[in-house]
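Sample entry (458 residues):
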Amino acid sequence: MKLWGGRFSKATDGLVDDFHSSISFDQRLYRQDILGSIAHATMLGEQGIISEDDADRIVEGLKGILDDAEHGRITWHVDAEDIHMNVETLLTERIGDAGKRLHTGRSRNDQVALDMHMYARDACDETRTFLEELLRVLLDLAQTHLHTVMPGYTHLQKAQPVTLAHHLMAYVQMFLRDRRRFILAREEADVCPLGSGALAGTTYPLNRERVAELLGFKRITENSMDGVSDRDYLLDYLSAASLTMMHLSRFCEELILWSSHEFHFVEMDDAFSTGSSIMPQKKNPDVAELIRGKTGRVYGDLTALLTVMKGIPMAYNKDMQEDKEAFFDARDTLVKSLTVFTAMLRTVRFRTDAMRAGASGGFTNATDLADYLVKKNVPFRDAHRVVGELVAHCLTEGKALLDLSLEELQTFHPAFREDVYDAISLERCVDDRCLPGGPAPEAVEASIRHAREHLEET
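Predicted structure, serialized as C-alpha coordinates:
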Protein backbone atom coordinates (compact mmCIF):
# COMPACT_ATOMS: atom_id res chain seq x y z
CA MET A 1 0.00 0.00 0.00
CA LYS A 2 1.10 3.54 -0.75
CA LEU A 3 2.12 5.60 2.30
CA TRP A 4 -0.77 7.91 1.48
CA GLY A 5 -3.22 5.07 0.61
CA GLY A 6 -5.50 5.01 3.67
CA ARG A 7 -8.33 6.87 1.95
CA PHE A 8 -8.29 4.67 -1.18
CA SER A 9 -10.18 1.42 -1.73
CA LYS A 10 -8.20 0.14 -4.69
CA ALA A 11 -4.60 0.23 -5.88
CA THR A 12 -3.52 2.65 -8.55
CA ASP A 13 -3.37 1.27 -12.07
CA GLY A 14 0.05 0.10 -13.21
CA LEU A 15 -0.03 2.66 -16.02
CA VAL A 16 -0.63 5.41 -13.47
CA ASP A 17 2.23 4.19 -11.29
CA ASP A 18 4.59 4.44 -14.22
CA PHE A 19 3.21 7.79 -15.44
CA HIS A 20 3.03 9.29 -11.96
CA SER A 21 6.40 8.16 -10.70
CA SER A 22 9.31 10.60 -10.71
CA ILE A 23 11.99 8.37 -9.18
CA SER A 24 13.63 7.85 -12.58
CA PHE A 25 14.84 11.44 -12.51
CA ASP A 26 14.39 12.81 -8.98
CA GLN A 27 16.65 10.12 -7.51
CA ARG A 28 19.49 12.56 -8.12
CA LEU A 29 17.99 14.57 -5.23
CA TYR A 30 18.73 11.80 -2.74
CA ARG A 31 21.48 13.74 -0.98
CA GLN A 32 19.43 16.91 -0.61
CA ASP A 33 16.39 14.91 0.47
CA ILE A 34 18.28 12.96 3.13
CA LEU A 35 20.16 15.99 4.49
CA GLY A 36 16.89 17.91 4.65
CA SER A 37 15.28 15.03 6.53
CA ILE A 38 18.20 14.86 8.97
CA ALA A 39 17.76 18.57 9.74
CA HIS A 40 13.99 18.15 10.08
CA ALA A 41 14.30 15.16 12.43
CA THR A 42 16.95 16.95 14.51
CA MET A 43 14.62 19.92 14.94
CA LEU A 44 11.63 17.69 15.78
CA GLY A 45 13.66 16.11 18.58
CA GLU A 46 14.93 19.46 19.88
CA GLN A 47 11.37 20.84 19.92
CA GLY A 48 10.00 17.79 21.78
CA ILE A 49 7.64 17.03 18.90
CA ILE A 50 9.12 13.53 18.76
CA SER A 51 11.33 11.93 21.40
CA GLU A 52 15.07 12.56 21.34
CA ASP A 53 15.56 8.79 21.09
CA ASP A 54 13.40 8.56 17.97
CA ALA A 55 15.12 11.59 16.48
CA ASP A 56 18.53 10.03 17.07
CA ARG A 57 17.45 6.73 15.53
CA ILE A 58 16.03 8.55 12.49
CA VAL A 59 19.20 10.59 12.02
CA GLU A 60 21.46 7.54 12.27
CA GLY A 61 19.21 5.57 9.91
CA LEU A 62 19.26 8.40 7.38
CA LYS A 63 23.05 8.66 7.57
CA GLY A 64 23.27 4.96 6.79
CA ILE A 65 20.96 5.34 3.79
CA LEU A 66 23.04 8.30 2.55
CA ASP A 67 26.23 6.28 2.80
CA ASP A 68 24.67 3.36 0.97
CA ALA A 69 23.27 5.63 -1.75
CA GLU A 70 26.60 7.31 -2.33
CA HIS A 71 28.25 3.91 -2.75
CA GLY A 72 25.58 2.59 -5.13
CA ARG A 73 24.14 0.06 -2.71
CA ILE A 74 20.49 1.16 -3.04
CA THR A 75 17.92 0.33 -5.69
CA TRP A 76 15.16 2.92 -5.97
CA HIS A 77 11.66 1.59 -6.68
CA VAL A 78 9.02 2.99 -9.04
CA ASP A 79 6.13 1.86 -6.84
CA ALA A 80 7.37 4.19 -4.09
CA GLU A 81 6.78 7.04 -6.57
CA ASP A 82 9.54 9.49 -5.74
CA ILE A 83 12.77 9.98 -3.83
CA HIS A 84 10.93 11.16 -0.71
CA MET A 85 8.79 8.05 -0.39
CA ASN A 86 11.70 5.79 -1.32
CA VAL A 87 13.82 7.20 1.48
CA GLU A 88 11.03 7.11 4.05
CA THR A 89 10.04 3.54 3.13
CA LEU A 90 13.63 2.36 3.35
CA LEU A 91 14.12 4.17 6.66
CA THR A 92 11.07 2.50 8.20
CA GLU A 93 12.24 -0.91 6.98
CA ARG A 94 15.56 -0.34 8.72
CA ILE A 95 14.58 1.29 12.05
CA GLY A 96 10.92 0.35 12.47
CA ASP A 97 8.13 2.59 13.76
CA ALA A 98 10.47 5.48 14.57
CA GLY A 99 10.83 5.97 10.81
CA LYS A 100 7.11 6.64 10.56
CA ARG A 101 7.56 9.74 12.72
CA LEU A 102 9.94 11.48 10.27
CA HIS A 103 7.18 13.11 8.22
CA THR A 104 5.59 14.77 11.26
CA GLY A 105 4.88 18.45 10.51
CA ARG A 106 5.93 18.10 6.90
CA SER A 107 4.38 17.61 3.46
CA ARG A 108 5.94 16.35 0.28
CA ASN A 109 5.08 19.78 -1.10
CA ASP A 110 7.48 21.66 1.16
CA GLN A 111 9.88 18.71 1.18
CA VAL A 112 10.39 18.76 -2.59
CA ALA A 113 10.60 22.55 -2.54
CA LEU A 114 13.39 22.24 0.02
CA ASP A 115 15.22 19.64 -2.09
CA MET A 116 15.05 21.83 -5.18
CA HIS A 117 16.17 24.95 -3.31
CA MET A 118 19.20 23.03 -2.06
CA TYR A 119 19.91 21.54 -5.49
CA ALA A 120 19.56 24.90 -7.26
CA ARG A 121 21.83 26.54 -4.72
CA ASP A 122 24.49 23.92 -5.36
CA ALA A 123 24.01 24.21 -9.13
CA CYS A 124 24.58 27.96 -8.99
CA ASP A 125 27.82 27.47 -7.04
CA GLU A 126 29.00 24.76 -9.42
CA THR A 127 28.19 26.74 -12.55
CA ARG A 128 29.89 29.82 -11.19
CA THR A 129 33.07 27.77 -10.61
CA PHE A 130 33.11 26.60 -14.24
CA LEU A 131 32.48 30.14 -15.46
CA GLU A 132 35.35 31.47 -13.39
CA GLU A 133 37.70 28.87 -14.87
CA LEU A 134 36.68 29.95 -18.38
CA LEU A 135 37.18 33.60 -17.45
CA ARG A 136 40.71 32.92 -16.21
CA VAL A 137 41.59 31.19 -19.48
CA LEU A 138 40.22 34.15 -21.44
CA LEU A 139 42.10 36.67 -19.31
CA ASP A 140 45.37 34.81 -19.76
CA LEU A 141 44.83 34.70 -23.53
CA ALA A 142 44.00 38.40 -23.60
CA GLN A 143 47.17 39.22 -21.69
CA THR A 144 49.17 37.21 -24.24
CA HIS A 145 47.58 38.94 -27.24
CA LEU A 146 47.61 42.59 -26.18
CA HIS A 147 49.44 43.53 -29.39
CA THR A 148 47.90 41.00 -31.80
CA VAL A 149 46.17 43.17 -34.39
CA MET A 150 43.08 41.81 -36.11
CA PRO A 151 40.14 43.24 -38.02
CA GLY A 152 37.05 44.21 -36.08
CA TYR A 153 33.73 43.66 -37.83
CA THR A 154 30.25 45.10 -38.05
CA HIS A 155 27.65 43.36 -40.24
CA LEU A 156 30.43 40.76 -40.71
CA GLN A 157 32.20 43.37 -42.85
CA LYS A 158 35.66 44.62 -41.92
CA ALA A 159 35.29 47.78 -39.92
CA GLN A 160 38.28 48.95 -37.86
CA PRO A 161 41.46 47.35 -36.53
CA VAL A 162 41.34 46.04 -32.97
CA THR A 163 43.39 43.50 -31.08
CA LEU A 164 42.64 39.89 -30.32
CA ALA A 165 42.90 40.82 -26.63
CA HIS A 166 40.19 43.43 -27.07
CA HIS A 167 37.98 40.94 -28.91
CA LEU A 168 38.43 38.31 -26.20
CA MET A 169 37.69 40.85 -23.49
CA ALA A 170 34.27 41.44 -25.04
CA TYR A 171 33.46 37.83 -24.11
CA VAL A 172 34.97 38.35 -20.67
CA GLN A 173 32.39 41.08 -20.08
CA MET A 174 29.59 38.74 -21.20
CA PHE A 175 30.71 35.93 -18.93
CA LEU A 176 31.22 38.32 -16.00
CA ARG A 177 27.58 39.35 -16.39
CA ASP A 178 26.63 35.67 -16.47
CA ARG A 179 28.60 35.12 -13.28
CA ARG A 180 26.67 37.90 -11.56
CA ARG A 181 23.39 36.37 -12.71
CA PHE A 182 24.25 33.05 -11.09
CA ILE A 183 25.21 34.89 -7.88
CA LEU A 184 21.76 36.53 -7.92
CA ALA A 185 20.09 33.21 -8.77
CA ARG A 186 21.80 31.65 -5.78
CA GLU A 187 20.48 34.39 -3.51
CA GLU A 188 16.94 33.59 -4.68
CA ALA A 189 17.50 29.87 -4.08
CA ASP A 190 19.02 30.46 -0.64
CA VAL A 191 15.70 30.45 1.22
CA CYS A 192 14.28 27.55 3.23
CA PRO A 193 10.63 26.62 2.52
CA LEU A 194 10.37 23.72 4.99
CA GLY A 195 7.56 24.37 7.44
CA SER A 196 5.19 25.55 4.70
CA GLY A 197 3.46 22.17 4.88
CA ALA A 198 1.12 21.32 2.04
CA LEU A 199 0.18 25.00 1.70
CA ALA A 200 -0.95 26.26 5.13
CA GLY A 201 1.93 25.49 7.45
CA THR A 202 1.31 23.22 10.44
CA THR A 203 0.03 23.28 14.00
CA TYR A 204 3.23 21.70 15.33
CA PRO A 205 5.65 24.13 17.04
CA LEU A 206 8.35 23.79 14.41
CA ASN A 207 11.53 25.84 14.63
CA ARG A 208 11.89 26.82 10.99
CA GLU A 209 14.90 29.03 11.65
CA ARG A 210 16.73 26.08 13.21
CA VAL A 211 16.21 23.93 10.11
CA ALA A 212 17.41 26.80 7.93
CA GLU A 213 20.49 27.17 10.15
CA LEU A 214 21.27 23.44 10.00
CA LEU A 215 21.04 23.50 6.20
CA GLY A 216 22.99 26.74 5.75
CA PHE A 217 20.11 28.87 4.42
CA LYS A 218 20.22 32.62 4.92
CA ARG A 219 16.49 32.99 5.52
CA ILE A 220 13.12 31.26 5.48
CA THR A 221 10.14 31.78 3.19
CA GLU A 222 7.54 34.20 4.58
CA ASN A 223 4.37 32.80 2.99
CA SER A 224 3.49 29.12 3.11
CA MET A 225 1.51 29.14 -0.13
CA ASP A 226 4.34 30.83 -2.00
CA GLY A 227 6.81 28.54 -0.25
CA VAL A 228 5.40 25.42 -1.93
CA SER A 229 4.38 26.94 -5.28
CA ASP A 230 7.37 29.17 -6.09
CA ARG A 231 9.66 28.01 -8.88
CA ASP A 232 11.04 31.45 -9.75
CA TYR A 233 14.46 30.52 -8.39
CA LEU A 234 14.63 27.64 -10.88
CA LEU A 235 13.64 30.00 -13.67
CA ASP A 236 16.35 32.41 -12.54
CA TYR A 237 18.92 29.67 -13.06
CA LEU A 238 17.43 28.62 -16.39
CA SER A 239 17.39 32.23 -17.58
CA ALA A 240 21.02 32.71 -16.58
CA ALA A 241 21.89 29.38 -18.20
CA SER A 242 20.19 30.42 -21.45
CA LEU A 243 22.15 33.66 -21.60
CA THR A 244 25.41 31.87 -20.85
CA MET A 245 24.70 29.35 -23.60
CA MET A 246 23.93 32.22 -25.96
CA HIS A 247 27.34 33.74 -25.21
CA LEU A 248 29.06 30.39 -25.68
CA SER A 249 27.18 29.95 -28.95
CA ARG A 250 28.28 33.35 -30.27
CA PHE A 251 31.89 32.54 -29.40
CA CYS A 252 31.57 29.12 -31.06
CA GLU A 253 30.13 30.72 -34.19
CA GLU A 254 33.20 32.94 -34.45
CA LEU A 255 35.58 30.05 -33.90
CA ILE A 256 33.74 28.10 -36.59
CA LEU A 257 34.09 31.01 -39.02
CA TRP A 258 37.68 31.72 -38.03
CA SER A 259 38.69 28.09 -38.56
CA SER A 260 37.43 28.13 -42.15
CA HIS A 261 39.85 28.43 -45.07
CA GLU A 262 38.38 31.84 -45.89
CA PHE A 263 39.37 33.31 -42.51
CA HIS A 264 42.05 30.92 -41.27
CA PHE A 265 42.41 32.98 -38.08
CA VAL A 266 42.49 29.88 -35.84
CA GLU A 267 43.61 26.29 -36.01
CA MET A 268 41.41 23.99 -33.96
CA ASP A 269 43.28 21.27 -32.09
CA ASP A 270 42.89 17.75 -33.47
CA ALA A 271 41.66 16.59 -30.07
CA PHE A 272 38.65 18.89 -30.38
CA SER A 273 37.86 18.32 -34.06
CA THR A 274 36.43 15.49 -36.13
CA GLY A 275 36.79 14.25 -39.70
CA SER A 276 34.51 13.22 -42.52
CA SER A 277 33.47 9.68 -43.39
CA ILE A 278 33.90 10.44 -47.10
CA MET A 279 36.17 13.50 -47.48
CA PRO A 280 39.63 12.68 -46.15
CA GLN A 281 40.82 16.30 -46.07
CA LYS A 282 38.10 17.55 -43.70
CA LYS A 283 38.73 18.85 -40.19
CA ASN A 284 35.42 19.89 -38.71
CA PRO A 285 34.87 22.10 -35.63
CA ASP A 286 32.17 19.74 -34.36
CA VAL A 287 32.61 20.57 -30.67
CA ALA A 288 31.90 24.24 -31.31
CA GLU A 289 28.98 23.34 -33.57
CA LEU A 290 27.47 21.02 -30.97
CA ILE A 291 27.65 23.67 -28.25
CA ARG A 292 25.96 26.07 -30.66
CA GLY A 293 23.24 23.47 -31.21
CA LYS A 294 22.76 22.67 -27.53
CA THR A 295 21.97 26.32 -26.87
CA GLY A 296 18.52 25.72 -28.34
CA ARG A 297 18.07 22.81 -25.98
CA VAL A 298 18.62 25.00 -22.92
CA TYR A 299 16.29 27.64 -24.37
CA GLY A 300 13.72 24.84 -24.62
CA ASP A 301 14.17 23.94 -20.95
CA LEU A 302 13.52 27.56 -19.95
CA THR A 303 10.47 27.79 -22.19
CA ALA A 304 9.15 24.45 -20.92
CA LEU A 305 9.15 25.52 -17.27
CA LEU A 306 7.78 28.99 -18.05
CA THR A 307 4.94 27.28 -19.90
CA VAL A 308 4.29 24.80 -17.07
CA MET A 309 4.07 27.61 -14.53
CA LYS A 310 2.05 30.15 -16.48
CA GLY A 311 -1.47 28.88 -15.70
CA ILE A 312 -1.15 27.14 -12.34
CA PRO A 313 -3.49 28.30 -9.55
CA MET A 314 -2.29 28.39 -5.94
CA ALA A 315 -0.75 26.43 -4.41
CA TYR A 316 1.02 23.17 -5.31
CA ASN A 317 -0.11 21.27 -8.43
CA LYS A 318 1.26 18.06 -9.89
CA ASP A 319 2.30 20.00 -13.00
CA MET A 320 5.26 21.20 -10.95
CA GLN A 321 6.80 17.74 -11.12
CA GLU A 322 7.81 18.81 -14.63
CA ASP A 323 10.28 21.34 -13.19
CA LYS A 324 12.97 18.77 -12.48
CA GLU A 325 13.73 17.23 -15.85
CA ALA A 326 13.97 20.66 -17.48
CA PHE A 327 16.20 21.97 -14.72
CA PHE A 328 18.42 18.90 -14.58
CA ASP A 329 18.81 18.88 -18.35
CA ALA A 330 19.75 22.56 -18.51
CA ARG A 331 22.23 22.21 -15.68
CA ASP A 332 23.84 19.13 -17.24
CA THR A 333 24.00 20.71 -20.70
CA LEU A 334 25.48 23.98 -19.45
CA VAL A 335 28.10 22.34 -17.23
CA LYS A 336 29.20 19.98 -20.01
CA SER A 337 29.32 22.84 -22.51
CA LEU A 338 31.37 25.07 -20.23
CA THR A 339 33.75 22.22 -19.43
CA VAL A 340 34.44 21.18 -23.01
CA PHE A 341 34.51 24.76 -24.33
CA THR A 342 37.14 25.82 -21.79
CA ALA A 343 39.26 22.77 -22.59
CA MET A 344 38.90 23.45 -26.32
CA LEU A 345 39.79 27.13 -25.96
CA ARG A 346 43.02 26.23 -24.16
CA THR A 347 44.16 24.32 -27.25
CA VAL A 348 43.13 26.79 -29.99
CA ARG A 349 46.07 28.14 -31.99
CA PHE A 350 45.52 31.71 -33.11
CA ARG A 351 47.00 32.52 -36.53
CA THR A 352 48.28 35.99 -35.66
CA ASP A 353 49.85 36.46 -39.10
CA ALA A 354 46.52 35.87 -40.82
CA MET A 355 44.77 38.17 -38.37
CA ARG A 356 47.20 41.00 -39.11
CA ALA A 357 46.88 40.42 -42.83
CA GLY A 358 43.11 40.55 -42.42
CA ALA A 359 43.36 43.88 -40.63
CA SER A 360 45.53 45.26 -43.43
CA GLY A 361 42.80 44.73 -46.01
CA GLY A 362 39.30 46.05 -46.28
CA PHE A 363 40.21 49.70 -45.55
CA THR A 364 39.95 49.23 -41.78
CA ASN A 365 41.99 52.43 -41.32
CA ALA A 366 39.53 54.57 -43.30
CA THR A 367 37.96 56.09 -40.20
CA ASP A 368 41.40 57.05 -38.93
CA LEU A 369 42.13 58.73 -42.24
CA ALA A 370 38.97 60.79 -41.86
CA ASP A 371 39.96 61.63 -38.27
CA TYR A 372 43.37 62.73 -39.58
CA LEU A 373 41.69 65.31 -41.81
CA VAL A 374 39.43 66.46 -38.95
CA LYS A 375 42.57 67.10 -36.87
CA LYS A 376 43.76 69.24 -39.80
CA ASN A 377 40.64 71.38 -39.32
CA VAL A 378 38.55 69.73 -42.04
CA PRO A 379 34.86 69.38 -41.07
CA PHE A 380 34.02 65.73 -40.34
CA ARG A 381 31.37 65.43 -43.06
CA ASP A 382 33.82 66.78 -45.65
CA ALA A 383 36.51 64.42 -44.34
CA HIS A 384 34.06 61.50 -44.54
CA ARG A 385 33.28 62.31 -48.19
CA VAL A 386 36.95 62.71 -49.13
CA VAL A 387 37.92 59.35 -47.64
CA GLY A 388 34.94 57.69 -49.30
CA GLU A 389 36.19 59.00 -52.63
CA LEU A 390 39.69 57.73 -51.81
CA VAL A 391 38.33 54.26 -51.05
CA ALA A 392 36.48 54.23 -54.37
CA HIS A 393 39.72 55.28 -56.09
CA CYS A 394 41.65 52.49 -54.35
CA LEU A 395 39.08 49.91 -55.40
CA THR A 396 39.48 50.99 -59.00
CA GLU A 397 43.27 50.95 -58.80
CA GLY A 398 43.56 47.79 -56.71
CA LYS A 399 45.39 49.59 -53.91
CA ALA A 400 45.18 50.06 -50.15
CA LEU A 401 45.10 53.50 -48.54
CA LEU A 402 48.69 53.11 -47.36
CA ASP A 403 49.73 52.37 -50.97
CA LEU A 404 48.72 55.83 -52.17
CA SER A 405 51.45 58.38 -52.69
CA LEU A 406 51.26 61.76 -51.00
CA GLU A 407 50.67 63.35 -54.40
CA GLU A 408 47.68 61.07 -54.99
CA LEU A 409 46.26 61.90 -51.58
CA GLN A 410 46.66 65.62 -52.12
CA THR A 411 44.68 65.50 -55.35
CA PHE A 412 41.69 64.65 -53.14
CA HIS A 413 42.49 67.22 -50.41
CA PRO A 414 45.42 69.58 -49.83
CA ALA A 415 45.45 68.96 -46.06
CA PHE A 416 47.32 65.67 -46.41
CA ARG A 417 50.94 65.73 -45.25
CA GLU A 418 53.74 63.20 -44.85
CA ASP A 419 52.61 62.36 -41.31
CA VAL A 420 49.46 60.74 -42.71
CA TYR A 421 51.18 57.36 -43.13
CA ASP A 422 52.02 57.09 -39.46
CA ALA A 423 48.53 58.26 -38.53
CA ILE A 424 46.85 55.39 -40.39
CA SER A 425 49.27 52.58 -39.58
CA LEU A 426 47.57 49.60 -37.91
CA GLU A 427 49.47 50.08 -34.65
CA ARG A 428 48.58 53.76 -34.50
CA CYS A 429 44.95 53.04 -35.30
CA VAL A 430 44.82 50.73 -32.29
CA ASP A 431 47.10 52.62 -29.90
CA ASP A 432 45.30 55.95 -30.30
CA ARG A 433 42.04 54.39 -29.12
CA CYS A 434 43.11 54.52 -25.50
CA LEU A 435 39.84 55.62 -23.92
CA PRO A 436 38.54 53.27 -21.19
CA GLY A 437 37.00 50.30 -22.95
CA GLY A 438 39.02 50.84 -26.11
CA PRO A 439 41.42 48.46 -27.89
CA ALA A 440 44.68 50.23 -27.02
CA PRO A 441 46.95 47.88 -25.03
CA GLU A 442 46.93 50.06 -21.91
CA ALA A 443 43.12 50.25 -21.97
CA VAL A 444 42.83 46.50 -22.42
CA GLU A 445 45.33 45.88 -19.63
CA ALA A 446 43.20 48.02 -17.34
CA SER A 447 40.15 46.00 -18.36
CA ILE A 448 42.00 42.75 -17.63
CA ARG A 449 43.01 44.06 -14.23
CA HIS A 450 39.44 45.09 -13.39
CA ALA A 451 38.11 41.70 -14.50
CA ARG A 452 40.58 39.86 -12.27
CA GLU A 453 39.48 42.06 -9.37
CA HIS A 454 35.84 41.13 -10.06
CA LEU A 455 36.77 37.45 -9.96
CA GLU A 456 38.09 37.91 -6.45
CA GLU A 457 34.75 39.31 -5.30
CA THR A 458 32.18 36.97 -3.78
